[in-house]
Amino acid sequence: MSQPPPPAYTGPERVLSGVQPSGALHLGNYLGALVKFARLQHERETFIFVADQHAITVWQDPALLAQQTREIAAAYLAAGLDPAKAAIFPQSAVREHVELAWVFNCVARLGWLDRMTQFKEKSGKHKERSSVGLYTYPVLQAADILVYKATHVPVGEDQRQHLELTRDVAAKFNHDYDAPGFFPLTEALTQGPGARIMSLRDGSAKMSKSDPSDLSRINLTDDADAIASKIRKAKTDPEPLPEGLDGLAERPEAKNLVGIYAALAGKTDAEVIAEFGGKGFGTFKPALADLAVAQLAPVGERMRGYLADPREIDRILKAGADRARAVAAPVVDEVRRKVGFISL
Ligand code: TYM
Q: What is the rounded CA–CA span in Å between residue 322 and residue 88?
């Protein structure tokens, strides 16, 4: 007879996510993450942080890191996160993340980390020269999530593997410390349009902060002219858009632009193809540029407005960190007891 499954987590449902302050935010971050955060804050208790500790796994100029941390906070606010609803804070301001990460370093197995594709991508040919932090990065991510016992994590597709590792860590901790249902098996929320936005220069590469070509991405701080010009210059093929979705299968650049249009308009790819099928990029690109400018330019404007008052941003981040600690500290206290650390 097979063993019955361990009892499931029965605590409150919570949403958590974060973005690294390691470069300018782009359309992929906006559609894959920020838009979802703003929606979910109305549904469950929500924690959204700036992943400054993750950012230093690769070298960051200290002054720039501080500035980019505030920029991400401003982007959260500009995208509609409400500090009265969601707790918004820098990861480094809540020490419980790293305290739990150490325990999880002792729970996670080397073999699990060896499988992480993001480490392989980021370390490239010179694995031995990467920081140890880059390697254990997903363990800190598991701690970010489980220190709030978060049940739902809105992220883009590229974070799926890290979320699987988070579940493995939770299950192993619950098992090893005889604590069934203590940590939830967190769900990644990747569904919906915008979960994987590709580069505007190469439909087979993810839109990314680290792409050397600025033409590959639309930054949230780009003004209307820059947005329109990048869409005009986006790589495409000479064919008109197909009449059906199947016709996009072998056309990554066309598929990406259709996906971006759908995500920005709140439509499905099929609805966009129904509208633009048979039309050339000479028609589709200007329509996409108008839509992108209408949606994104105001976000950039609002961001600049928030950034004009960094003291107010810091006040919001401090209040968010206090709220976050109030949830995280008791979880870490419980973990300390379970692990056998004496309290003095
Ligand atoms: P980061 O900073 O690389 O990206 C932030 C969010 O944006 C999403 N994203 C995309 N979505 C669609 N298309 C794209 N081209 C695209 N590029 C990025 C990412 O999936 C992510 O949701 N490890 C995380 C930060 C993190 C975190 C966490 C997230 C640290 N701890 C705990 C969730 C929970 C990262 O590097 O995201």
A: 10
